[in-house]
Structure formats: structure tokens, C-alpha cells
Amino acid sequence: MIDSYGRRIDYLRISLTDACNLRCVYCMPEDMRFKPRAELLQDDEILAIVRAAAELGTTKIRLTGGEPTIRPGVVELVRSIAAVSGIAKVAMTTNGLLLADLAEPLAQAGLQALNVSIDTLNPAKFRRITRWGDLHRVWDGVAAAEAAGIHPLKLNAVVTRGFNEDEVAELARLSIDRPWHIRFIELMPLGSVADFQQESVVSSAETQARIEAELGPLHPVPGHDGHDPARPYRLAGAQGQIGFISTVTEPFCAGCNRYRLTADGKLRLCLLRDREVDLLTPLRQGCTVEELKTIIRTAVWNKPWGHGLPNGDVPQLRVMSQIGG
Ligand code: SAM
Q1: Ligand 1: distance of its center to the CA of 286 in Å?
Q2: Can you tell me which atom of ligand 1 is nearest the CA of 27?
Q3: Residue nearest atom 25 in ligand 1 by C-alpha distance
Q4: What is the pLDDT of residues 189-235, one digit of tens each?
């Protein structure tokens, strides 16, 4: 599919649930309410959308959430998605808490890539950021993902002022001895937690300067895929890479090839724009495959050019956990 700006859109991110087993301070309020399951897409509805998307040229699917691993039957769903003709890659973004048991079955089912969110190496700080998470379980999950042969493993850290901006060099250091991609994400403002988020943004430039001050120069990795939001670098002699995702200070909308499906069945054409297109209602009203494809194709054609953060245009309708990042 091509949008009206000529961008090829072939990467669909699907939120499998709005619920999560953590409550990261920068992601959602502590008293977050989740939707009843009947209001969320069922497995057959997700598969119908994936098949239609694949027929329209979508080749990559990323499963996210909320926390995708808490969805009942997630392994079988991955197997079914991976088997759809035209889908070349199935990936997942997870907090890793349940990966110790799930990494191997997920890999067997066809999951090829994993991004694990890990904002700190300090267990007490991890509990503070996630409101109750156990960091050791995440590391068990990372080990299980490696043992399952998932490579490259990407570790995502959202840099949040007052929480972990002093720890970015320690996180970056992980890339020296491990072939991991350590990616630093700028905090994005959304919904009811936008004020806190806006006050807590740490620019990629600041993060990079902190890393270089402690660990030496970062060398750009040649051959950057223009669709990858992370600008890749390497520390001298390192096995892995460092990436910066600078959505706020250096938007990369020109290279965007993605669209998103929320757990309640809305196509979201830009992470940071509120306009959505409903797929759940037409699906439940019995629309045909061709009708579904027309809705998706039209929605993608109308994908906005980019977000409006530089103009103070902050999306209000959802917090990040309801979209999936
Ligand atoms: N639960 C999974 C996880 O923890 O990775 C998947 C969903 S989570 C919403 C996806 C990613 O978005 C995580 O890396 C998370 O840290 C990041 N994230 C959440 N809120 C964010 C925000 N306001 N700005 C930037 N990234 C955010």
C-alpha cells in the first residue's frame, strides 16, 4: 500500500490487549481501567485483518500491547499469523516478565524478533518505574529469548528525567559484550499522563552525550534502514549496537512505513495522532474481505504526514499502553 505522500506502508503493529502486568509511570496512570474482553478483537478477527493486510502488501507484523504475552492463547495466535501467506516477519515487543516460559514456544511458533523493554539495571529503580516489577524475571526472560535463538535481541529503554537518565551509560555498556541492540527512546506525551511526560523528556542528544562522556565515541553504523526509527551506532570493539529513537526532537515521519491496530479494533495511522478508523464494527457486521480491504487501503492512503508535537499538538484519546508504542 502507498499513502498519499508516496510512502510504502507494509508494517502493521497489532496491540493484542490494552491490559498489562506492569504500570510504568511514564506509560499509564496507576488506576488504569482495562476494556472487557468482548470489546477487544478476538483471534479470528485479528487473523481476518492480518490476511487482508497481507493481501494488501503488508509483510511485517509486530505484536504489542498492553503486554502481549498476557493474552490467552498468544502462542497459537503467533503460529496462525506467521502462517499467513505474505507475512515474512512476526516480531513482538514485551516487558519480558513471562518470557522465561514463553520464549521457546513463541520461537517455535514462528516469532522471529523480540524487543524487550528494560529501563534500568537496578532492581529497586525498576520497581519504582514499573510500580511493582521484578527485574530478575526480565533477565530470565532475556536469557530464555537468547536460548531460543532469537537474534538480534533489542532492549528498549525509555529515558525519563529523574528516573534513569543517569544510567544510560550503564545500559549502553551492555552492548559491548553482548550482541544486543540497546535502544534509547525519547519519552512521548500522550493522553492523561502527557504533562508528566512533557516535563520528563530527555533528548537523544543529551543521552548520547552522557554515553560518550563515559564510554567514548559512538560510531555510526553504515547502511541504516531508513524505515528503522533507531539511528544505529556502535561503541569501539562492541559486539552489539546502540540506537536512538528521537521521536520528539528529530521526527522521522518521512521514513514511516507503519500503521497500527489497537486491541479494540481501530486502525491508527500515526502513533501520535488521534484519528482512527474502526475495523471492529464492520467486521462484527459481517463485512466481506473486499470491503475490509477497501477500508484498510483507504485508511492507509489517508495516513497523516506526521505528528504535531512541534506545534504543541498532543494526542489526547489514548495513553501509550492502549496503542502499543
Ligand atoms: N508491554 C510491552 C512492553 O513493555 O514493551 C509492550 C507495550 S509498551 C506500550 C511498548 C513500548 O512503549 C515500551 O518499550 C515502553 O517502554 C514504551 N513506552 C510506553 N510509554 C511511552 C511513552 N510515553 N513514550 C515513549 N515510549 C513509551
Answers
A1: 33
A2: 20
A3: 187
A4: 998 888 888 999 999 999 999 999 999 999 999 998 889 999 999 99
